[in-house]
Amino acid sequence: MADYPTTLPQPSTTAGVVDPGLLRSDGGGPELEQRTSFNSGRTDFSMSFEMDNSTYKTWLAWVQANAFDWFNMDVITDRYGYIYSNQLVRFTSPVTYQKRGDNWLSASVTAELIPGYGL
Questions:
Q1: Alpha helix segments (H runs only) across 14-118
Q2: Contacting residues for 113 by C-beta, under 8 A, at least 6 apart
Q3: pTM for this model (two decimals)
Q4: Which of 9, 67, 82, 103 could staple 63 via S-S, CB 3.0–4.6 A?
Q5: pLDDT digits (tens, 9 = 90+) for 3-62
Q6: Who's near 90: CB < 8 A, 6+ residues apart?
Q7: What does the pLDDT look like over 56-82, one tens digit per residue?
């Protein structure tokens, strides 16, 4: 399992939501029936990385080779103040980028984190 390189930019923003894995369906009565679709909750979140153009080439090469499998990464949370913690992460969407200036851009991606599995 890979570790996110310390030489690459850390995410500048993260926003997540916990998915408890529940499916709801219309039942015969007034209440919805619900069942669990997987055994443990997961956290889906979006991340944004800001960097210059040359760093983006290096970052994207690492992402394409490693980030769609599980890897260890420091993730920031602002739930209890800004706290970094090492977590098990994988990217789940294509990378999109937006130019922010002549030699500057922001890359965004959706990722999955399994709470409690960090090292």
A1: 53-62
A2: 16, 42, 43, 44, 45, 75, 87, 88, 89
A3: 0.72
A4: 67
A5: 999 999 988 866 655 555 554 455 555 555 545 455 556 677 888 899 999 999 999 999
A6: 67, 68, 69, 70, 71, 111, 112
A7: 999 999 999 999 999 998 876 655 555
What's the burial of 46, exposed, middle or buried (CB within 10 Å: 0-12/13-18/19+)? middle
Please give the angle made by the CA atoms of 24, 21 and 27, to the nearest 5 degrees: 10
d(CA 79, CA 64): 30
Over residues 94-119, the pLDDT tens digits come to: 999 999 989 999 999 988 887 666 54
